[in-house]
Design goal:
This protein is an alpha+beta fold and about 170 residues long. Helices cover about 30% and strands about 30% of the residues. The model has no long low-confidence stretch (mean pLDDT about 95).
Length: about 170
């Protein structure tokens, strides 16, 4: 399987939006939590606030890198990382379900590790996303006990819907 990885561009936003919307629907829906497909609908992903956030994830500069993965014209993966004062924040790391366990995530992770220098990498993960938590643990992340869990609520979600999230840390220092 031949895939291409390149730095992201702002013009990737429409494909990135569609890719993430599909990925979120495949990964994060949880009826017990009230996370329905409507929580991750096209309308939600195309809302102005969501679009602004997604565009910010595609920025590439000296403090932030974002890569996208394509097979032909199809976007199948992405990762974004930004340097903060005390650490690097992994802002998004996704590989389409059909393409997982084929080395794409590992290649994206190698690029992240080449970019980061001398600071830990942190990320937050939905607590019910056990598959991703286990993958991060396999790669050397630990649950960050120094940061408290929190509940994420998107503005477009019904008021009572909240998703528990945890912080994870990859120690480089």
């Amino acid at each position: 399987m031949k895939f291409q990885i390149r730095l992201a561009r702002e013009t990737d936003l429409p494909d990135y939006t569609k890719f993430l919307q599909k990925t979120y629907q495949e990964t994060y829906i949880n009826a017990r939590l009230g996370l329905t497909s409507a929580c991750f609908s096209e309308t939600v992903f195309n809302a102005p606030g969501t679009q602004k956030y997604l565009l910010s994830n595609l920025q590439v500069n000296s403090n932030q890198k974002a890569w996208v993965v394509h097979i032909g014209v199809r976007l199948i993966g992405s990762v974004s990382i930004i340097e903060r004062e005390d650490d690097y924040e992994l802002r998004g790391f996704y590989v389409a379900t059909d393409y997982q366990n084929k080395g794409i995530g590992k290649e994206l992770w190698r690029r992240v590790l080449k970019f980061v220098k001398g600071k830990d990498i942190t990320c937050d993960v939905y607590f019910h996303n056990t598959k991703t938590i286990e993958m991060y643990k396999k790669w050397g992340f630990e649950i960050d006990k120094g940061k408290k869990e929190f509940y994420r609520h998107w503005l477009e979600w019904p008021e009572q819907v909240k998703a528990k999230s945890i912080y994870m840390r990859y120690k480089l220092v």
